[in-house]
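Task card 7
Instruction: Convert sequence to structure tokens.
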Amino acid sequence: MGLKIVICDDEAQYRNILREKILQDSFAYDYETEIVEYSCGRELIKALDNSAIADVYFLDIQMENGTDDGICIARELRRRGIKSLIIYVTSFIDYVQIGYEVKAFRYLLKNQIEEKLPMVLGDIRHELSGEDFFSFHISGENIRINKSEIMYIESDRRQLKLYTDNAGDYCFYESMDNVQKALGESFIRCHRSYMVNMAYIKGWKGEQIELTSGTIIPISRSYAKDVKQRLMLELV
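Output:
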């Protein structure tokens, strides 16, 4: 696997930390990486017409005297149809809900880069590894669904109901725990009976997750802490 990564941050110290940690990860897990750095959003947006198309973008949300460059860059990427992974790097947690608009993959608080970046890079490797399909059986037939099309899974006693964006809905028998392991870090368990693809989360409020389809998914008390940590909506 080879990755092209763009880092856009107006603070050189954070660009350096990200670059060094990414290079260490590439050596440890034996993959090639090309890292391109930008110190402001205008430079990156201008470069998109040439060589700045990457697999992953690490974007500082607030740059250049308080302007929200990271948000503007992400919107421009999505406007151009670029589906690359976006990692927001920020000193502020207030912007997290905005990330749902552009389907940001993860968030990193700047004071937690040393601790959290290795886990984020692991999620990136898994997401881009090509392990894109989830398989299950219905009446002896093997069904394969692209993980990116799965919106959420609901458990109804021993039966699971899988809901997709545009590939139909399915019912099959399997344990929720086994499915959670198979689907990986892009999915979050928010209830004993519900698991959600983070790419389809539009927002969070109270004890509910709203999906881009308008579907409301409950968050149970036993999973609330993990959900808040994963979505960076509350620090503990």
